[in-house]
Every structure is written in structure tokens, then in C-alpha cells.
Amino acid sequence: MSGDTTDWPDGAENIGSLFRLPSPVEELMDSRLEARGVRLLLKRDDLINPDISGNKWRKLKYNIQAARRRGYKQLLTFGGAYSNHIRATAAAGFFFGLQTVGIIRGEKHLPLNPVLAYAVEHGMLLDYMDRQTYRRKNESEVIESLRERFGDFYLIPEGGSNELALQGCAEIPNEITQDFDFICCPCGTGGTLAGIAAGLRGKQEAIGFAVLKGADWLNNDVLHLQEGAYGGPQGRWRINLDYHFGGYAKTKPELWLFIKDFEERHGLCLDWLYVGKMMYGIFDLVERRIFEPGTTIVAVITGPI
Ligand SMILES: *Cc1c(COP(=O)(O)O)cnc(C)c1O
């Protein structure tokens, strides 16, 4: 394991070499960027670990540490049937010796999809919650009934975005030794953006690309997450709502073409749920001269997996 190990969750020693931190920073050479005088650096959080996508690890790290320090034996969290967060939590529990419970929205479908099959293989206990109850999952009554069923647990919210998650994400900009003006990430719940913004220095600004349609509520959510974690707004940030391609897990032919072309040019396959949408947005904004010549942008490659 590289980097400072003192703030790692106990147990990390055992699996150390599996985590690649700080994650690499690579400049992307592309004639379309050169034509506009813009530099693009990729922060390769997708290379941190083969089982836990970059930003999910950033968000889980301090939560696992807290759970272990407070003596919890199990983690419980929520997610949809295709949730990267469910998969990552199962893997993290497996690595760090914590039992995991995944409460999945909706009904059970057999055979299990690859995400849920992976979770079960890594020791996660799955349980299903009807959509009506799922909407009330943060209410104490629902949490209490889960405690009665599963025993005591350390609770991680849906998507993993809580105060400790922000702390983990705030480390992303701190790992980048080169100067930059903007740092971009895809936005689901906004936790990653909220944390990244909190780690910025000087005039640096974070731009989140929403993958959900009409997600203007994200502005409030990011603010609330920062208030919860730091007592007030942190850093400069904004959210671009223009590149959702129809909404979560929706796509359009131009996105596929962009991803395919990007892979041919750079040998890097972008995931179409999150990173592909952000990268399309960055290239489109560059093309439209939104960034001045001489600008350096960092794109955080938060996944896949
Ligand atoms: C979950 C996920 C995101 C969304 O992160 P939020 O903190 O919820 O905004 C972005 N990229 C990838 C690859 C993800 O798996």
C-alpha cells in the first residue's frame, strides 16, 4: 500500500497492495483540446481498486474506519438493484471483515443480476423493501424495524453520501500536485462533488455533471451535505444539468458514438452511466469555447465498477 497508512481503516494492512493511492494523474493528449488551448488531466480513481469503484471507496473509507472504531460488526445500506454503492459496500465489508446487509428497493428477481450476485458472493445479506416503505427508509420507525430484524448495525445512507464520505472525497484534489483551474466529476447524489469542492484551494472550481434529468435539487443537496459535514458551504462549485442524456441509465446514440470514439483514440472505455456523460460534457464545453485558452481541467474518473 502506498500513501499515508495512518488514517486507513484497521485491517487495511491485510489487503494493502490492492489499493492504489494516491490514484494516478495522467494528461490526456487530444487534438480537440489542443485546438482550444485547454489541458485535461485525468484523475484515475478507476484504478484505485478492481472491486470498489474509485468514488465509492473514497466515500466508504472513513465510514468503515468509524464503524470499526465504534465496535460495529455489521454495515447496513440501501440501494437499487443495479447500485454500484451496494456492490462496493459488499466488497468493502468482505475486505475489512464486516458483515454487510443490503436493503434493495423493490421486489426480488431471480436469477440475481450481476451486481446483486456479486454482493451475495462477497457475503452481503440481501433484503428487499417495497417502494413505498423504501421512500421512508430514513425515518426512525423504519430504521428501528431493521434493527429488530438484523441486530445493531452501522448505517450508511443510499449512495453512501454522508459527512464522512465528504471527508474522503475532499482528499481527491489534495492528491493532485499539478496546478489546475477546474475539477469535474459526475453527480448522482452529489456527495462526491460536495467533498471535492471542500478540498479545493484558491480560485479552483469544481463542476459536477448531473446524470439525472432535471436534477436542480442537487444544488440544495450538495449544500446540505456540506453544511452537515463542515457547518457551511465550502469551496467554489456548480452543477451542469445539460448532459444527462435522458436521465439515469438512459442514453442516446451520440453518447455511444462519443464513448466508442474516445476508446479508439485513447484506449480508455468510459462507463456510460456516469463518466461518459461527464466527459461528453467537458468536450462539448471545450468545443464551445467555454474555457479560456490556458485553462487546466481535471476530470475525475470515478469508475467504472
Ligand atoms: C456512484 C457513482 C457516481 C456518483 O457519485 P455521487 O457522490 O453519488 O454523486 C459517480 N461515478 C461513478 C462511477 C459512480 O459509481
Strand order of the largest sheet: 1-2-10-7-8-9
Please identify the structural class as seen in this structure: alpha/beta
What is the strand tally? 10
Small molecules bound: pyridoxal-5'-phosphate
Overall shape = globular
List the secondary-structure elements in sequence, H or E: HEHEHEHEHEHHEHHEHEHEHHE
Assigned CATH class of the largest domain: Alpha Beta
Give the helix level as a range of percent: 25-40%
Unreliable spans are 1-6
Number of separate helices: 13
| CATH-derived topology of the largest domain | Rossmann fold
Query: What Rg, in angstroms, do the CA atoms define?
Result: 19 Å
Mean pLDDT over the residues: 94
**End-to-end span in angstroms?**
20 Å
CATH architecture label of the largest domain? 3-Layer(aba) Sandwich
Q: Can you summarize the main beta sheet?
A: 6 strands, mixed
Total number of domains:
2
Strand-residue fraction? 15-25%
